[in-house]
Here is the input.
Amino acid sequence: MKYYYIFIFLLIILAFQIGVSNLKLLPYKDQKIIPISLAQIDSNKTNTQTQSQSKTVDYYARFNCGTIDNDNGPLRPGKYDSDITIFNKQNFPLTVIWKPIEINQENKNNFQAINIQPQSIVNINCAKIFPYSSISNSTLNNGFTEGVALIRISINNGQLTNNLLYNQGSSVVINNLELGDMVNVDVLHTVNTLSGLKKENLYLKVDFSLEHLSGKITSNSNSGENKNNLTAIFPVETNKIINPISLIKQVLNNNSSSNQQSLNNATIKIIKSQLIANNPTDNHALTFQKIIPTITNDTSQ
Here is the structure.
């Protein structure tokens, strides 16, 4: 009978140990073991997706500003200006940032913000690119500068970053398919003739004849056509007094040096004179350019 109680006591202890073992294994029952290589791949994929959510939409618009007064380069002389227009195609306000980048890199410019209302247009011209050009002695008025205006729209997690920074709204979410179609950017390049080139040219046309002091015409008077009637054209300037006979004598002396004595014995008779004005055309040129956006992923964030 004594051994019977000992046997029951051992069974109770064994059952208790088995129960404790099951409790220790229970927390690990539903856990999955992932290989290290697969875990690394999944981590890289998550990081890539996070980085790809930050994008920039850039427009590079060329500008030509200033004056060219010589024929040394590929561009003709004239006054150059560029007008860059940005049209907001959306039904909500949009903020873009921009900065000019000059070819000679003389000025280091920072980004500036432009707020564009829905379905509205703003412009950037040479007066805004170089606001100091209003000074009469500025380099722009006396020289020429060209470069590129960088216009940028930034998106982070589908939201417009510039709008958030400049309080234009934070509830708008942009789809990736809409990134390149939020705005239209166009450039109109103009060149006007320099004011110095627009000055009209004046010419004096003189019809005259030569006669000897004896009254006889130097040419054959029996011919059917009076070959002694001549015409000369002289460039003249305004606000100056001119003597047509002196101009004619000068030309005749230069062209008939071998017959100087004959010209000295001749009389110049002016038959008719006429002032001719030559107005040059204003060579005004226009060039239109549509800017295509460049969309990039910003992986620096």
About this structure: Helices lie at 2-25, 36-51, 126-129, 139-142, 161-165, 244-255, 260-264.
